[in-house]
Batch of 2 targets.
Target 1
Amino acid sequence: MGGKKGIMITGAIAGILAVVLVKSGNAGNYGLCIACFIRDTVGALGLHRAAVVQYIRPEILGIVLGAFLMAFGAKEFNVRGGSSPFARFVLGFIVIVGALMFLGCPLRMILRLAGGDLNAIFGILGFVSGIGIGIVFLNKGFSLKRTYSLSSFEGYLFPAIALGLLVLLIVRPAFIFFSESGPGAAHAPVVLSLAAGLALGALAQRTRLCMVGGLRDLIMFKDWHLLSGFIAIFAAALAANLIAGTFKLGFEGQPIAHTDGLWNFLGMALAGWASVLLGGCPLRQLILAAEGNIDSAVTVMGMAAGAAFAHNFGLAASANGPTANGQVAVIIGFIAVFAVGYFNIDRSSDIKVKGDAKLES
């Protein structure tokens, strides 16, 4: 599955699976959304009490377990961490705040457009803008520093949590919350959702599928390789929606979406900027965590905390549009990402150049 052909096949499979999941029970344009599914899962654990978005999403669990099994089998399971973990937690938190303002992660952004939701155009424009800002920081020397080798036990914890959540989903104990209405109550059969997640996780691990990396590489190096996977997702999902009769072109009345273009733009600009500094989109962070990257596992925990916080404090948008609290949170998010970016620019080379200039004079 290497090379451009492999990543395009992976993207096409992901796009088709997303539409199949919608036709099998997931809400419209909600076939695959990492941010939304993390939000639903933490809601099922009672970390937020928004009753309409509480369900342990087997797609997420499948992605983690599929990537873990593939990495382990390919001898690519490499446990490492220690690269500014708390900064990564904060950036993960901020990514979700931005995504829940738009109502979708980068993957759902493409799937929404493939379903005819033109509001996604504002999200894409914002996402590209945020990545562009992040690249400015990368070019100035931004770095969250090196990672260190850790014990194998550390790496097994993240997939073990996914396995534990799968058991809770199957057993359905009384202390787990399940939505009776809304997006949380709309879901495909567990077996199908889990199988789709396993397939996507395994394929994404092999091909390094990442929307942020794709746009970053295109802008910085004119390299289309990673982005070709998301182009394939769009093309396959568009074709599948047209065949399945789930394509609906327009701005109004789109499922789990709002029409405020400014805040769709700003939400994804925030998510894009923070994701560039993290080195990958939410899907990529899940894959890396499953491969043994503890920093990415910490990032995912930050996303989970951000999702819980967003619904406990009214930051997440809804079909009615953004909330005032959410707008303030996005603005604070921009300030926080700027601070993380600015104070992690490596200026040692500048100091050396200035010192050499003084010696020469």
Target 2
Amino acid sequence: MAMTLGMGRRETQVVGLISFAHMLSHLYMLVLPPLFPVIRADLGLDYAALGVATAVFAAFTGVLQTPMGFVCERIGSRPVLVCGLFLNGAAIALVSVIDSYWQLIALMALAGVGSSVFHPADYSILSGTVSEKRLGRAFSIHTFGGSIGFAVAPFVMVTLYELTNWRTAVAIVGGIGVALSIVLLACSGVIGEGGAPKKRGAGSLTWRDMVTSPTVMLFFTFYAASSAANAGISQFAVSALIDIYGISLTTANLALTVYMIASLIAVLPGGLLADYTKHHNLTLIASFTVSAAMIAVVGLSGLPFWIALVLLASVGALRGLVNTSRDIMVRHAVPGASVGTVFAFVTTGFMFGQAVSPTIYGLLMDGASPGMVFWASAGFSLICIGTAIPAGWVRPAAGKPV
């Protein structure tokens, strides 16, 4: 595989194992929604109750990410990842035997606890194992793995359900995570000291360090704004395109699919780009400037739909292309500190953006302004540019964590 060209055997093994675990973590986030109709009928629940269950999963994941970063610092990322993956997979598998709603809520909470370890542990292990020259490719493969987890979840769950039943389908998928945690434990010699515990005071971070650091807060804002920009397209583009262009539901969903596939495909080339450039902030600025202009044009009425489709594909590709450059900037901004802890903190911005922005987009749609959905997405992209410019200038002092 071209992406692993130049990587040593150990680097390739570590990237493969960590990325597969990351893929499962994302699949677990969507393990229940494709089966909601049959779970609802079996357990006698309504959709709102099932929505609360998935929200509990997300809430525990988001709230505990940064604390798990501190745990990685204290005891090492490898045991945290193994335990988290085991807990995540086991909790999902145990959903197959529930007979009450509160059992479901408790297990989704436990699954969220397990899911909270991946960002701090994964980035810490990769940063401590892979050479700086190949870190961009490693990060992009890791991101690609997570994206694949989202993409295949509906197909995997529905296929397993059709072959068996919903309980067996959930048990099988959860069991894979338990098995992989055992594999990771057996491969401790391969993962080695990547993400090993830090000595107390050796560049360790505190909450105060992060929330008072201009660099870290710029990245937190960037992650939140980019998440909000993407949420407008992923959640409201279908409805807005139907209103603006008068197309069918099927055609509008096709446009969204094109956008998402283009974003996914561009992630891996983005890793190569990140390895071969030193000016990652310029990559972010150029990408978000062009994509903001394109997505704003999509919101105009009177365009032929095929032009909007091309623009959406281009925006998706540009946004996927810069994911690794963004992660490399975070990595470079915190030398000598706990990389995993900082990644856990700034990626919480993703969930913040996803939590806040849908209400904004919904109000725009309710106000009969579908074009504003795309303009708002462009506006969030401009915020990304505004944070990327100073983030490229700020450099941590020698020996300082941030």
